[in-house]
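Troubleshooting log. The previous structure file for this entry was overwritten by mistake, so regenerating from the original sequence record. Sequence copied from the archived sheet and checked twice against the printout by T.R.
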Amino acid sequence: MQTFRVLSALLCYPEQELLDALAELPAVLDAEALVPTEQRAALDGFMRELGGMELLDAQERYVALFDRNRSLSLHLYEHVHGESRDRGQAMVRLATLYGLHGLEVAANELPDFLPLYLEFLSVMPERAARSMLAEAVHVVAALAEKLAGRGSPYAAVLRALEVLAAKPAQPAMVAEMAGRLDPDADDPAALDREWEEEAVRFAAAGLRNATNDVACGR
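Regenerated output below.
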């Protein structure tokens, strides 16, 4: 499912390869037509806006938004488990699941990084991918609300993801996820701990298509 690859790429740290490929991504979405009209219009607007930015400006915005605010972390289990040992165990299980499908964790990122999770879903059958996305939909919806509240165009990507899940997010669960990492988490000490974590990166051998050229990496 190339739609998940496109959304994964849009949530990655912007590199020149992504900006160069933006004009091609709508056609990839058109081929599968999975994103509903309303969310697709917002997504197209985001891609046009991103495509009109200078690379350094796009990168600075991304860092200021996602790297300097733990409350907006794109690491799924950060919102679910925080810094508890449960998060580490959950990531081991997730990495094992990747391995069972021929995908391996390499350097630079943690397994629960949302763009990597979406990369994994892209190799799954549609029904299975939507069901697995539903397991994370409350975090996705909470992030979408936080980003929309900041007036960030990245909210469009999260909204598109939200509607692709097999089950809708429940408001009570979204509120709970939103409260797990509130703005108080965005303090220097918390960020220092975040940067000290050992990073691993997700790589999928043999996956080659137009969106591979815009895979995550810094």
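The two ends are 25 Å apart (CA to CA). Archived copy saved in two places this time.
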